[in-house]
From TrEMBL:
<dbReference type="Pfam" id="PF00551">
    <property type="entry name" value="Formyl_trans_N"/>
</dbReference>
<feature type="domain" description="Formyl transferase N-terminal">
    <location>
        <begin position="71"/>
        <end position="152"/>
    </location>
</feature>
<protein>
    <recommendedName>
        <fullName>phosphoribosylglycinamide formyltransferase 1</fullName>
        <ecNumber>2.1.2.2</ecNumber>
    </recommendedName>
</protein>
<feature type="region of interest" description="Disordered">
    <location>
        <begin position="225"/>
        <end position="244"/>
    </location>
</feature>
<dbReference type="InterPro" id="IPR036477">
    <property type="entry name" value="Formyl_transf_N_sf"/>
</dbReference>
<comment type="pathway">
    <text>Purine metabolism; IMP biosynthesis via de novo pathway; N(2)-formyl-N(1)-(5-phospho-D-ribosyl)glycinamide from N(1)-(5-phospho-D-ribosyl)glycinamide (10-formyl THF route): step 1/1.</text>
</comment>
<keyword id="KW-0808">Transferase</keyword>
<dbReference type="InterPro" id="IPR002376">
    <property type="entry name" value="Formyl_transf_N"/>
</dbReference>
<feature type="compositionally biased region" description="Low complexity">
    <location>
        <begin position="226"/>
        <end position="235"/>
    </location>
</feature>
<keyword id="KW-0658">Purine biosynthesis</keyword>
Length: 244
């Protein structure tokens, strides 16, 4: 199996898989140390799709894992005869599609009462493939951004470890389509309207990044933008819409 992504979540997944005796054929990340625990080859690729041939030849079991991965898989990796690509997403799909760093913020602003992690097949869309499994946890009324984000990362790790044996055995199958529930997408453009939430009651806890400020520069920049006064008569935001 091949691993694509970055950070501690990827490294822990690689270490866990190798410790259970699963073949780790290649680790695609920015840091060569991510592959050390598995004794696996490492590939630093700004665009993993440009190395589709390398991945296809290296993969001995036809499984590619995506963890904390910001790259988007495209053809030819997504061909029907290509490897099975599975993503562990920090968020519940399809409610929290897109960047987890942004999705957590808006989950708090919108009053969501639960968050979690989702294992899904990767298709040509962004976080739109069939869901294999979930790991849910409640969001308390006083929970802050950094607390929910940390629980989300832990949920991703727990979900990967839970589903790994079934995926390796070929017995992990979709339990539902992502389109079976209301969908929302949270990309960088969602941050353009963050200023309209500055008076929202949940704004202080939704923007309390804590130690994640260093890992989410897109949020830090958005929070430092000068506040713009609303136009006379402009509607003030509430907690209704879940779409981002």
């Amino acid at each position: 199996m091949i691993f694509v992504g970055e950070g501690a979540l990827l490294r822990r997944a690689v270490t866990h898989a190798a410790g259970l005796g699963h073949p780790v054929d290649l680790v695609c990340s920015a840091d060569p140390l991510d592959a050390v625990a598995a004794g696996a080859p490492h590939l630093a690729a700004a665009d993993v799709n440009a190395h589709a041939g390398t991945l296809t030849r290296a993969c001995t079991d036809g499984i590619v894992w995506s963890l904390n991965n910001k790259q988007i898989f495209r053809e030819p990796l997504l061909r029907a005869d290509g490897p099975r690509i599975l993503n562990i997403h920090n968020g519940l799909l399809p409610r929290h599609r897109g960047l987890p760093s942004v999705a957590v913020l808006f989950a708090l602003l919108h009053g969501d009462t639960e968050y979690g992690a989702t294992a899904h097949e990767v298709d040509a869309g962004i976080d739109t493939g069939p869901v294999l499994a979930e790991h849910r946890f409640p969001i308390g009324p006083e929970d802050r951004y950094h607390q929910v984000m940390l629980r989300g990362i832990r949920a991703c790790q727990a979900l990967f470890e839970r589903i790994l044996p079934a995926v390796a055995a070929g017995s992990a199958h979709p339990v539902r389509a992502v389109t079976a529930e209301p969908s929302a997408y949270y990309g960088l453009r969602a941050l353009d309207r963050l200023d309209t939430y500055r008076d929202h009651p949940a704004y202080p806890r939704a923007t309390d990044l804590g130690p994640f400020a260093a890992h989410a520069p897109e949020l830090t920049r958005a929070l430092l933008r000068p506040s713009s006064a609303p136009e006379p008569g402009a509607a003030q935001p509430g907690g209704g819409s879940r779409h981002g």
